[in-house]
Write a structure and sequence with these properties.
Ubiquitin-like (UB roll), GTP binding, 363 residues, Rossmann fold, Beta-grasp_dom_sf, nucleotide-binding, 10 helices
């Protein structure tokens, strides 16, 4: 019995089992087994076959992966937003490899990857799905392209495929402390009341992974699935933006309904509708900020800003300018929204905000 058969057998067993108090331990065990087999499936085989490479070198300030079913307009969006031409046609699987493009927005270079369409069963390797999903794991943001005429069927299927390979969309990492020890059995603690899991279930799940000595501390009310994610330690938590294309083919009421759902943007690539709003939301989701530098006695250089992540300190800015600057740093003068008055004299731990101007004074 291969891994795929074992996985489908466990999935059938989970769907057959009723969810109640009596079966929660059984279901927890099945979920742990399922996660174990899925991670085995994702591990590359021992004998590596030579094949065409698929990943693209990471470049620019951020990386966005364009994921969706075949023929939803991924290549059209790439060609519209970037200067790269990706072949677009009315038949499925026009794009067969990963095509990179660069969006130039607010002075930042955002790498946009047009990936081949995902089909159902991609997590098991159907239609180059394994490679597509592997590239998506390296991105900073997933842009999920959906067909507005097809309701939410595509969205649910894609989320399920990405979920099964350890990509968690728009979720926070579970606040669980987990550490394997040499001996001493299982030490189980929680700082809040647990309603969805108990010590016995934790023990069963850990035994499934052949872990008998460990320290587990729950800092929030988590489920068995979230505990399994922490044990596996190979999950990636990515922000995801759902982009509904082809809105010119549906009613205005339907467009209004879709636009109001969280993390969603409605566009039409063919008629170039709402693409500027998509770019501004993309910038927001990537948490990028611009910081401008200033030389003493001269006006700030607004033509060439530093593109950094939200929450960066003055020390990070120094490293971005030059790696030796942080060692010689004395203080900085900052103009902008992060200060109480302009200019403010700040230390290395001051947090910068978008469009701040900085002048660094060396020792």
């Amino acid at each position: 019995m291969g891994i795929l058969e074992k996985i489908s057998e466990i999935e059938r067993e989970i769907s057959r089992t009723q969810k109640n108090k009596a079966t929660e331990y059984h279901l927890g065990l099945l979920k742990a087994k399922l996660a174990k087999y899925r991670s085995q499936l994702l591990e590359p085989s021992k004998k590596s076959e030579k094949g065409e490479g698929f990943d693209v070198l990471k470049s620019g300030d951020a990386r966005v992966a364009l994921i969706g079913f075949p023929s939803v307009g991924k290549s059209t969006l790439l060609s519209t937003l970037t200067k790269t031409e990706s072949e677009a046609a009315s038949y499925e699987f026009t794009t067969l490899t990963c095509i990179p493009g660069v969006i130039d927005y607010n002075g930042a270079n955002i790498q946009l990857l047009d990936l081949p369409g995902i089909i159902e069963g991609a997590a098991q390797g159907k239609g180059r799905g394994r490679q597509v999903i592997a590239v998506a794991r390296t991105a900073d943001l997933v842009l999920m392209m959906l067909d507005a005429t097809k309701k939410d069927v595509h969205r649910d299927l894609l989320e399920k495929e990405l979920e099964s390979v350890g990509i968690r969309l728009n979720k926070k990492k579970p606040n669980i402390y987990f550490k394997i020890k040499k001996g001493g059995g299982l030490s189980f603690n929680s700082t809040c009341p647990l309603t969805r899991i108990d010590e016995k279930l934790v023990q069963l799940i850990l035994h499934e992974y052949k872990i008998f000595n460990a320290e587990v501390l729950f800092r929030e009310d988590c489920t068995a699935d979230e505990l399994i994610d922490v044990i596996c330690a190979n999950r990636v938590y990515l922000p995801c933006l759902y982009v509904y294309n082809k809105i010119d083919q549906i009613s205005i009421e339907e467009v209004d309904r879709i636009a109001r759902t969280p993390n969603s943007v409605v566009v039409s690539c063919n008629m170039k509708l709402n693409l500027d709003y998509l770019l501004s939301i993309l910038w927001e989701y990537l948490s990028l900020i611009r910081v401008y530098t200033k030389k003493p006695g001269q006006p700030p250089d607004f033509s060439d800003g530093l593109i950094l992540r939200k929450g960066v300190t003055v020390e990070h800015v120094c490293h971005a300018i030059h790696r030796t600057l942080a060692a010689q740093f004395k203080y900085a003068l900052v103009w902008g929204t992060s200060t109480k008055y302009s200019p403010q004299r700040v230390g290395a731990n001051h947090t910068m905000q978008d469009e701040d101007v900085i002048q660094v004074v060396k020792k």
